[in-house]
Batch of 2 targets.
Target 1
Amino acid sequence: MSQYQAPLRDMKFHIDEVLDFPAHYAAFPQGREATPDIVDAVLESAAQFAEEVLAPLDSVGDAVGCLWKDGEVTTPPGFKAAYDEYIGNGWTSLSMPLELGGQGLPASLSGFCMEIHATANHAWTMYPGLSMGGIQTINAHASDDIKARYLPPLIAGRWSATMCLTEAHSGSDLGLLRTRAVPADDGSYRISGSKIFISSGEHDLTENIIHIVLARLPDAPPGIKGISLFVVPKFLVNERGEAGARNGVRCGSLEHKMGIHGNATCVMNFDEAIGYLISPPHKGMACMFTFINESRMGVAQQALAQMEASHQTALRYARERVQFRATQRPDPTTAADPIILHPDVRRMLLTQKAFAEGGRALSYFLAKQTDIERYGSDEQARAMADALLSLLTPIAKGFLSEVCIEATSHGIQVLGGHGYIREWGQEQHYRDARITSIYEGTTGIQGLDLLARKILASRGEALKPFVQEVTLFCQRNPHGPYTAVLQQQLQSWIALTTELGMKAMQNPDEVNAAAYDYLMFAGYTVLAWIWADAARVASAALETAHEGPERQFYTGKLVTARFYFERLLPRTLALAASLRSGVANLPEFPALD
């Protein structure tokens, strides 16, 4: 059962009070139309669509799933009508440039709306969500001719986009992919191969589907440096941008999955399909990271969405369900009390709340950096934003997707047996959440990206922008309740990084052995800064807040911040001990037999 309500009060807390988006939007031309009243109206409209249209379809999509027949896919009942309403209301064009047919509002505002929609219906939201990455990739790397043909219908939502990366034999090791691209006389290419795990690869929501495909040219060198990037449409597109004849790409089957049943996860077969090169030859992976990074942030958002949805159900249930007698009883005449009065239940609820609201704040901080990097005129500020995005994106994706699994598991546990059956939707949240730590790179791969490719490869330079951010916060709030703890936590992160760098010089396997624990340590540290900042704002607001819902809201922030610092942040002590133990306790393969 879905009783989802968009958490607009908490969203506005981070947008207006913590991150000061009104001032942020006023600082660049694309943001000046996003006045507080416009932002409020957009968020309220997004909430209404999510609560009334998308949320009721979430369980339908899970129960019915997508249907495949002769290469065509039918989405669950109601999905097509919801999508038509979605594009009719202009959601796909919200943050697209005016010159491309968009509404010209900031990317961050579109991201806030996408969070609301994903919380209501994760599987459905993946269809338009992937198109955003396709649009950014084509706009960043394709020729003007391809942009003119493909971008307007994509932005309007009449067409959608996919990312076609992996193959059955390669998994996350894209250097092994075999899909071939043979040049034709007219400048196009003939793409042949098979891709798996393609989200939204085939469906009935749009008139055309544009596949962004990794493939090898005939003269490609082996490995990751021999990959190029192509646009391959489901229906061929003429010079006027009109879709025509069917191309040689079809859905071979649907994957039978643990969750997100409402989204079509496809095996896509390319049989001399006509495609167009949009990257320099053999430089496709660098261009594909435009799409990958967009998707990694989308996955982080899906993770916080699942935590929010599960928490809402668990909190409502815990207030209503009566079992056992609490130590302090509100009504001694009753046989049992609401389970929210039991400390262990509150432990689980506060864990969900701390991760969901902390994840939201992190997501919004990164959305702000995206605006600065994309629209800013100050080169130094843009460089700083880009550096923070580079460091924090793998943390947001990897950490939030891991704690999302824990949080949705708590959601089941709060409801007990009722959480394990379908009626309340908690088991669906857990199943849907599970994919977030896998796709767009597993948690271990995110850890390697963070530790090896970013921090150690830069000799620690990649960490400096975040260190500066936290140091400045501590300088401005020297007497804050968590400033000293935050400073100590930051220094522990720096010390661990130095230790790992020294160990890696002796044995490179130390990096791989430490990557997961290192990423989780980093995630808890980043959320410590997030919660310290939230506590700062809430403390100041309490000085003038009147009795009632507002005072209760800010008090709740302080309670959750305390819980985070005293109950969750200490987990980093175990993580530090674990990663310091090194690779020696991970036996070589024969010892595992």
Target 2
Amino acid sequence: MSVPVARVAGVSETVPTSDDPTRVAARMAELADEIRRLDVRYHAEGVSDVPDADYDAMVRELRALEAEHPELVADDSPTASVGAAPIGATFAPVEHRVPMMSLDNAFDADELRGWAERLARSLEREDASDLEFIGELKIDGIAMSLRYEDGVFVQAATRGNGKVGEDVTANVATIASIPERLDGAPPVLEVRGEVYMPNSTFEALNEAQEAAGKPRYANPRNTTAGSLRQKDPTITASRGLDFWAYQLGEVVDGPDTPRQSDALDWLGELGFPVNPERRRIVGADALVGFVEQWTEHRHDLDYDIDGLVFKIDGLDLQRALGSTSKAPRWAIASKLPPEERTTTLLAIEVSVGRTGKATPFAVLDPVFVGGSTVQMATLHNDDQVRLKDVRPGDTVIVRKAGDVIPEVVGPVLADRAADSEPWVFPSDCPTCAEPLVRPEGEAHTFCVNPFCPARQQAQIEYFASRGAMDIDGVGERTVALLIAEGLIVDSGDLFHLDFEKVGELEGYGQTSVDNMRAGIDAARGRPLASLLVGLGVRHLGPSGAEALARAFGHLDAIMAADVEAMAAVDGVGPTIAGSVAAYFDDERAKALIEKFRSGGVNLVGPEVSETEQTLAGMAVVVTGTLAGFSRDEAADAIKSRGGKSPGSVSKKTAAVVVGESPGASKLTKATDLGVPILDEAGFVSLLETGVVPGVPTEDAASDEAAPEGDAPADAG
């Protein structure tokens, strides 16, 4: 028998075969011991030593071996138990009146369909095509039971081993979204759900950690667990935890809720936060479609999910299907692709970027995580390497979430070699050998040599990138080759290339040369704002560049402007203005601009718009795909009318325009804040009139309030 084996701390990667019972038994015992240890760490101590994907792989391997060798299955196998009992005396034990069971997992579409078909057979139906389910997001947090008596919150308990958890009432009571009292509640109501930390809160917490010179927290889930285990509830209160309700536990004299969906609606009416992304689903194919939707959109949310949960919607059918010793038969967790895995850190190297910033990065034994194979990951800076204490040769946890750059979360200390030595940041630039300098009060180290080949190459790559001048045919390899062959020194040289010499380079035929020439010719006509972005001036981003281009109308005017004049431009301010002025004071910058000028690059900004400023001062957020506007066109339509087009929703947002496949987090936040939501027709009306459809203007409101006739407002 061949079984896939996870790379997990403390567990060998030797795969036993079915004709070697001694090794099979040893492997099963090894897996069982490690799973039990991890269960204690996760359920009783609130700590994840390994990513979920590695844990799941171990459990699946043990189950496969137990199925192949039932005579070797231990009576206390962790595959037949839930979590781990509480340990220590920090929190009092709480016995769950209704067990908090675990869920079985489906890892692909076939397993999910197979589960649905098994339910159909158990219910004596031909197939699962008419079975009604409810689909919910599987929040990556801490399972929690909340108990209310006569409408008053009296207890909160963790899952523990499913039968006994820990009393964390004082800490959970600090979570603002959990009601203290309920109107119209039954005598006893137990609500189950997930305590979690929003990603925005987690990032703010880590920023504060870095500012204080402390190590970053690993992930929101572990940080949530640690926050709930604080002896001082005021610390828990400071962590910004939140809660989603997803299930009823014990209920005495409650209302009749025949479906899971009805129960969730009722919880929402009582005042509990219930996740808005739930959906009633009919048939197995629709289950798979729901998984595909959230695999694509999981990062639209401001909280982490690691899967979807599907339940038979009818509570009578749930009772008919029953449970195993560990999990209900009527529910399953469909796991999304893992975003954390363990692998070996082969080396730590340092890259130098266009500003001279020297950034350490990890060279990894390739590992598939977050939908792609990762071989390198960021380590941020010298402080973070020391605080995380990752070393070459370590087994490390690697995280990759969507399009976010992969990062090393931390080491698996149980696997560290006894002779391991801490890594030391180099004192000299790895490219030019000039000294590296860390300015006082800064977290980053820099190569200050402006002629460092690594800096020059990175600057040209950035200049040609899609976010700047968007030059087709000029990528990382091409830039490196052109520099190595002496054909370019800086980005201005791209517009004076000798294409005959380019054609002589290995791998460059006529088609490649023509494509490069066309890409550079097209770049000559890019907007002035794109050129400003491409210069790589510190602090100057796309919005500031566009503001300067619109305000001054020509690059020469920007270069001639003083700091005060630039700072007065809306969206610029003194920091950006000072950085831009300092950049153009450098003679090398002036020489570069002359190369652009002689190379035919556009230096002229947009003409002052004569479009009526219907949206002056208004912030309008666009999410999803519009039929009549591209993303850039929608933003330009807003800005040309005096408005702003931010990427996130806030209290200051005037309206959110929603197209197809919108970002769920933006819609949720708009709803929570009461921000008007418009379709495309409403957006067009807003552009023309400056009035948010459905929202009365001040004049209209005054007209409605005014009494008829000429009588004064207080006339009797």
